[in-house]
Amino acid sequence: MTTGTRRRMGVEERREQLIAVALDLFSRRSPEEVSIDEIAEAAGISRPLVYHYFPGKRQLYEAALRRAAEELTARFVEPHEGPLGARLLRVMERFFDFVDEHGPGFSALMRGGPAIGSSRTSALIDGVRQAAYEQILAHLDVQQPTTRMELVIRSWISLAETTALLWLDGRPVPHAEQERVPRAELERQLVQDFAALAAVSATYDAQMAGLVRRMLADEPVGGPLRVPEPTF
Amino acid sequence: MTTGTRRRMGVEERREQLIAVALDLFSRRSPEEVSIDEIAEAAGISRPLVYHYFPGKRQLYEAALRRAAEELTARFVEPHEGPLGARLLRVMERFFDFVDEHGPGFSALMRGGPAIGSSRTSALIDGVRQAAYEQILAHLDVQQPTTRMELVIRSWISLAETTALLWLDGRPVPHAEQERVPRAELERQLVQDFAALAAVSATYDAQMAGLVRRMLADEPVGGPLRVPEPTF
Entry's PANTHER family (chains A, B) (predicted)? Predict the structure, then answer.
């Protein structure tokens, strides 16, 4: 009879541990740079044992990605209380937290990581976008969005993704000393962008106009949904 | 000595013909639905002869995509004359022409066509985005954009892409009779969106503020860069 000093993990527990270790590694580097050997080492188990739980790197990557998608989706959840601008701003803060924590992995994924991208990873990303869309509709208290409203919300979601990716790059413009735009400014700006895009659409669509009216009715002076007066 | 009734095509001419035929087919259906046999038939040549010019479907797809990228990039070119809003609106019209002509292929590609996506196709797409970015900077007469300006322009480009994709879907909301938003409205709205996003950013950035001032100085009353007065 062998009694290890370390407790043996159960199957589910081991799977969970491997997913957590993989997600951590895949967050810090792009998928092609992470090897099964490295995941095994970080988990403190042998390479064959990793393969016992996951047939290959792709499956482990997809499991890690599913975990990340659930985590991000959970961060979209926000109580339906108080002005909409403050709610959206809190979600933006948590979104940037997530992007910050998973930076290189998020970039590789969203830029269509050719090495490991698949229709399953695309479906996971679309699922997160759909969750974001539905959360926004729920907060706006809209059951039947018009095509224009759907367009504003979905295209704003892609604006937020691109903004986060560019922020991650820190994209230093080669010929100038550029500072990275502070996160907090971008979070606020995205909320203002939502209001600005909704206002443009409102000139074409009565439902959007009603929505903008309701959004602003609850918004305090200086709230993030109020596009500040131009300084020019 | 054989003398065909039809003139023999030269190597380059044949390659060009195959690319044109492939681009047409790949525009109308997603890449996985188009076979080499079909391309051969449409080009009026044998399947082995297609392989003589292109080692496989992937290479032919990439050549067709390169052609499409060049074509789209050419449509961004616009004389540096007249108000900026009208210039941007004309480019948007040509962009939607392109999207309309290559609909299903454009969708499959931009949604990260898993079957045939590669780092080369991603690089081609990024090249088109970069060309769009540089054209906008040139029209704005900006040599050294700030990080914030770059962010506004690049994130607006992704907004335009998403808007075009949603327009292509016609995305009928299941529970309501929705009309497809007219193309012309979206083209104009995107120009207004650009102005609206720039105006938000201008509250954080002196260079952006100066830019918005210059943009609007030349813009006639009712021009597309003028965000219309809210109707609510």
Answer: HTH-TYPE TRANSCRIPTIONAL REGULATOR RUTR, TRANSCRIPTIONAL REGULATORY PROTEIN (PROBABLY TETR-FAMILY)-RELATED
Among A171, A213, A232, select the one facing B209 at the smallest CB separation: A232
Q: How many CB pairs under 8 A join A and B?
A: 147
CA-closest candidate to residue B95, choices B170, B25, B183: B183
Amino acid at B165: L
Within 13 Å and on the Cβ side, how many CA atoms surround B24?
Answer: 10
Claim to verify: residue A104 and residue A49 sit in the same structural domain: no
Min Cα distance A3 → chain B (Å) is: 48
CB–CB contact A200 B192 (8 Å): yes
| In the predicted structure, residue B137 carries a pLDDT above the cut 60 | yes
Neighbouring CB atoms inside 10 A of B74's CB total: 11
Q: Which two tokens stand for residue B230?
A: 């809210």
CA pair distance B23, B142, nearest whole angstrom? 35
Number of domains in chain B: 2
Q: Give me the interface pTM, i.e. the ipTM.
A: 0.89
- Which domain range does residue A14 map to? 8-64
Q: Do A202 and B232 lie within an 8 Å CB cutoff?
A: yes
B108's tokens: 């499959």
- Mark whether A33 and A142 lie in a shared domain: no
CA distance B74 to chain A (A): 24
Quick one: A109 and A218 in the same domain? Answer: yes
User: What does the alpha-carbon distance between residue A202 and residue A207 come to, in Å, rounded to a whole number?
Assistant: 7
Q: Determine the pLDDT at residue B178.
A: 61
How many angstroms separate the CA of residue A124 from the nearest CA in chain B? 13
Digit-coded pLDDT (tens) for A61-74 = 999 999 999 999 99
